[in-house]
Structures are given as structure tokens and as C-alpha cells.
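Lab notebook, bench 4. The sequencing result for the construct came back, and we need a structural model before the next group meeting so we can plan mutations. Quick request posted to the team channel:

Model the 3D structure of this chain.
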Amino acid sequence: MNAPARPLQAILFVCSMNAVRSPMAEALARLRLGRRVYVDSAGLRKGERDAFALAVLRENGIDFGGDEPRNLDEIDCEGFDLVVALSPEAHRHAAERLRATAAELLFWPIEDATLATGSREQRIEAYRQVRDTIDRRIREEIVPRLRG
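Done. Here's the predicted structure in C-alpha cell form:
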């Protein structure tokens, strides 16, 4: 008989700079999960919040501009049940940090929208695709785990 899965109480999203992917994931998870789960995000390095990322979140009714970027070194990873790495670099670092913890690590390799080229509209469309991919994965892979 399998032990019941540990309920999710705290989720951390990690990427390279805490400027695009991880803050998007944090904001979208808060929108989808409400107060049922504590959600935070961090980067391996601190970067400024990306204006395109904030703009595509606002398209979904999310104002995330007042949140400050955080560095993974500022976070106590032992306090999280689930850590979701959004870049290969973040996955490697998170795996090392979580080695001696009970936290579960997921790897969602999400494209880096900052690498998009072309017109402003083409670039912002890349951010929308990142937003929508993260939102879909939260709805499909995390939300069902909260239903009991």
C-alpha cells in the first residue's frame, strides 16, 4: 500500500535571473492556487523585472510590478514541498541544493523569451507563449494535485 502523497503547502519556481519565467510562474500560480499554497520564486542571479513579462501578465489581469526579484541564495529551500526549475541552469543548481531535502524537484524547460528577435509584436508574442505554456503546466500538473 502506497503512502498518501504529501500535500503541497509551498512551491518555489526557479530560473536564471528571476526576471521573466520564474516571476511569471509565481504570479500565475498565485492566480490559479489562491491562498491554498504558498508560492515564491527566485533566480540564480538577480535581474530587474522584465517590462514585456510584466506587460503580458497585465494582459491576464495580474499586476506583479511591485514584487522584488530574489536570489536563490536568499531562499530556504527546505521550506518548500515542490521546486520547479524553469531553465537547465536552474535545474542543475536546484538539484544540488535539494539533495538533502524532502522537496520534490520538477524540470519544466521553458524557452527564454528574452532571446526572441524581430519586431516588438514578435518579441511580445514570445513572452505570451512563455506565459501560456507556464499557465497550462500549472493547470495540468499542479492544480490537480490539490484536489482531494
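The CA atoms of residues 116 and 123 lie 5 Å apart.
Will bring this to the meeting.
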